[in-house]
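Hey, weird one. I pasted the Autotransporter domain-containing protein sequence into the form twice and got a warning about non-standard characters only the second time. First submission, copied straight from the form history:
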Amino acid sequence: MENVKKSNIRIFKKNLILLSILSVVSTAPVVQAASIYWDNASGNNQFFGQQNWSNNSTPALNDDLYIYDSGNQTVELSLAAVDYYSPSLDGDYNHTLFVGEGSGNSASLKITSTPDSYQYTTYLSGSMSVGSNGGKGVVEYHDYIFDASNIENPEENRFTPKIHLETLSIGSGLNSDGLVSLTGSGKSASEYMMSSSALTVKDLHVGTDGGKGVLNVDGSSIDVGSMGYTEDQRTFSLGQGTDSGIAGTGTINILGGGKMMVSGSAYSEGVISAVIGKNQGNGALNISGSVVRNGETIQSQAVFAQGLEVGVNSGSIGSISVLNGASLSTMASNTDESNISAYIGVDNGSGSVLVSGENSIWKASGHTYIPSETNEVGHLSIGESGTGSLTVANGGVVSTGSTGYFNRHNETGYSSYEPVFDNSILGDLYLGNQVNGVGTLNIGGAEGHAPQMVGSVEVNKIIFGAGDGSIVFNHTDLSGNYTFTTDLVSSAEGKGTIKQVNGITEFDTDRSQFSGKTEITGGTLVVSNALGGSMSIAERGTLAGTGMVGTTTLYNGGNISPGAVFSTSPQTLTINGDLTMHSGSNYTVNMTTDSALDNPYVSDLLQVNGNAYLYGGGVTTQQDGDFTLYIPDSRWHVLSATGSVTGQFDKLVATPFVNINYEYDPQNVYLVVVRNDEDLCQPGMSGNECNIGGNIDENANNGGNGDIHDVIVSQPSVEAARESFKQLSGEIHASAKSALLEDSRFLREAVNNRLREESGSEGGAWAHTYGSWGSFNGNNNVADLKRNIGGVFIGVDQQINPTWTAGVMTGYSRASIDNKQRRASADRDDYHVGAYVKGQWDNLSLHTGLGQTWHQYSTDRSINIPGLQDRLTADYGARTSQLFAESRYQIPLTSTITMEPFVDGAYVQSYTQSFNESGGIARLSGASDTTDMFFTTIGNRFTQQLTLEGGQTAKLWGTVGWRHAYNEVTPDANLNFAGYSSFNIEGTQLSKDVAILEAGIDVSLTKETTVGVMYNGQIGDNSTDHGAKAYFNWRF
């Protein structure tokens, strides 16, 4: 290397360039230090413009530069490559660039780089002050998008333009406002350099002495404290007030894959004092997000390699947020023998850390030295001697361990130390470490805030110190059953508080070393092992589990429920101490029966290893989810005390039909079920409901099927009992008879439609198909019924003489019946036969017939009521017989139009066989019975003759009529449960009166064949039916 003496500065003729913030290196001699201010005389806003400074020349080394006020303009400083050589860094450059200095002044400086800048290392040396003494300053530094092709021999020359400063101060002094933004955009030149930071400073101060400062690091980087690898103590202060109490406010935002390294001197015994919020200052470090570069995810990150304090001194506030996949690393100071990497809340100050979002992480390590690949495990202190909080939520992670530095020399050709975090051995977390410390760990949200999804805390154990330490579980139900596995240790008797606020939290390991208190005010805490200390439950909180807890007190709104959450299996929860229940608290008891046991009535049990004080409080029973089966005269053991039982529970609210009484002895409490005097038939119930309810009451002591009675008297309300009666009633068996009687008309209509043909033929054959969709209206007593049916009839007839014609017919149909409101349905197959005769005297005709139909039912019912789920099926037969006649008279109105009034009558009798349903305890048996019905119909038919093209003839016709039903139109069924006496259930009513509407067209294809289609509708006072028919007639 060639050394040249020039102006008392050593010059190195190699790749380093220094663009001093005090002078542009030139051949001019060095002058004495002076204060030079910016006046932009040339008007070009260029930093290196000689006419833009007050001395009309390039500033010299050691000159202080002042950009007091740039007006509405921005001073531009370009770090372009120039053919200069740099002075060495061993000079003493006590110069400062002030941007926005002095009350009322405002200045802006923009520093840019070009592609050529990346061929060298560019330094801005000295110090920089942005916004001071009441002024407002803004500095922007933008890192150029790097292209590897711009580097000469990139494997040998790993450099990038960067700024080296002694001190960077942002927002210093009362009413000052400073903003520095470091921005990058994409791939960084740091991949080809030894030090990856675009800005390196020995000391960094943001928002101090009454000023407001903001540092934004967006996709760029800053290194604090490591410049020169010295052993000096360096300082990092964010939001620091004066000793006299003038507060400062500082904020650092790291995002877009940006990085801040606060390293001190990890290569030596030197340390750095890193503080966020001190001397009544307010400091905030926000780290957020990540970016993907070249397929690799780069986290926004901050690293404190020599310890960190957050919230120091009374009135100070410090905060850190690690969000959306960002990273925070803290390593214990080499002078801290406790290996605590961060103190949150110190000397009565207030500090907080939030780690939230998937892949967000705080990594805490112990003493870390370079070079070293193995280091010491670190710990964390929340609320060391002030107020501190740590919130871990929404998938965020806090992990303790150690960090080693791996030398990548063999990979890159130069010494580059890669930090490697190892949490195979975990450190500890201290809460409220000293007497005046208040430390809180929040899993999810903080107390008093909205619950959040859980995060993860990876520590060896949580130690509650001499102060006030607490853990708050306030997580959403979406977190599921959150299992907390970390050991808990009280450093002194009674220290530490566990607060269950929301969600379900489970402790499944031995925590008997904990001697503090547990407060449950919301959600559920499940203790499946041992938990020491005392317990209080209030508001909307629940204690569950099968483990052992200490002395427990329940206040208004508190609930205790042995066993697992959402489980109804009876379990035992042990209280190793006294139990106290106050008015408004509750004990939820799971109950079941096991006939294999000597005592078949098994329930939850509170085992109290002490005294039980019952100052009120209620008992809620449950079985099979939200339902409890109360068996009259059953007795359940729910509480046992090794000491004594004092006081009583509040009156237990059971159901409208049973009372639950308490039995006490000196050390036990029992529940006894007693049937009260309330009838199952309650005011407002329908006839069917009272019929089945009364029958169940009458058979209460019937040993054949006592379970039905127990299920009904256990219903939680009268309305639930009504719904149970509706589903149990078997109404489908009665309502199906209404559909059967109604459907008898299809046989009659097929015959009558055939016999309306004109006389004159000697005989013929015919076919008749149909489909129909009908419904019956329900009422307070019965449910709606829907019926769909389709079928076919065929027949032959023969003229006996000019007056009389006789014939026979047969057919098949299938009907589907839906009793949806009763969770029931039926399918019915019908097989038909019949015979008929017709007499014709001029315009008067008379025809009569008889029919017989055999039916086969398949019914399906489901029961879904509290305490009983069942499916019931049955197959049984029925039969319908009918006799019918019709008379009509044709009246010609014109040569083509005829009116034909008619009257008909039908007697129908249906017979239903007995049956037995298959299923569980709700199965029914039905008795056989017979139902009779008589129908009359009067109406008028209008016909018009048509001649079609081609010579065929056709008839358009329509019918209106009125049908009336006699006898009782409400069918019923006689049913009984297995082992019970019978009860009567009514079905859906037939319509008493029905309007009949028909319309159709017949077409004669030949003299012998006719085809036709028609619509058939019936609209009644309790039913409607609409159908379509098609038919074919062939004359012999």
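That's the output from the first submission. The warning seems to come from a hidden character in my clipboard, not from the data itself. The chain is about 5% helix and 50% strand.
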